[in-house]
Amino acid sequence: MQEITIQTLVFASIILIFGALTSLRSARKEFIRKAFGVGEEVSPVKPRGPGFFERISIRFSQAGLNMAPHEVLILFLLVAAISVAAGFLLFGNFVIACFTAPFGIGVFWGYLKGRAKKRAEKQADEMEDWLLILSSHLRSGLSLTQALKISLERLQGALREEIEKVVRAVDLGTPGYEALEMVKDRIPAVEYKMVLVAVKVNTQLGGNLAAALENIARAVRERRRMRSEAKALSAQGRIASNAILFVVVGLIVILRVLSPDYLSPFFENILGMMVFTASLGLSVLGWWVIRKITIPKI
Description:
mainly alpha, Receptor-associated Protein
């Protein structure tokens, strides 16, 4: 009981230290702002960005998971609880188990980002055909809303799910541009933002929207080619980064299963726990650095 109490106090002390450092950083920024007048002029019409849980909810929607903010919070708490339970069963130490909570949340967040990225790539690949269909119908004399409804019949996959929402909004009387803008957070592709700009300019100033959509379709094709080349060139880096992380985690799990006493010295005192935690942190840092260096963002 005494050991668990000490471990709890150590963990609470670490949290307090991080909180104090964060407060000092905020106080330093506030002092600089007041002393030198930095950041005093703020535009009164600047729109407020989405909140923390709203940003997380947007990430879930980009991954194709429709969840309310409170459901997202419950899911993250569940992931943290499962991570702590798994860490305690694996290491038999409460402090180390508490540090597995952010690790588990990080793994889950990485899974969400990967799923959202794959879904965005599928949407971008489908966007070329969709834009060409829209362009051909616009050239035939149809309006944007009519072209959107007809193009839905030719779509499949992830992009169709979002365009269906656009068409339903159009059926309810929403203008074409506003309906397209409603799903901009769920379609993070750069080309879709270009489509929004082209439609907005056409709505306000006029112009040849069909030609603009054809140009964007060519940009989609070129980015898809570049993305394929980047994946081929960065394959070795992805394998190396994953190997670093999986070897370390796999080795720890195997040692705890086959020889539970082998890693016990790390958990007998605070210094050992700090060294063990730092080793895991450096492994994760190495994985992150290699991926940032070898995997370009396109």
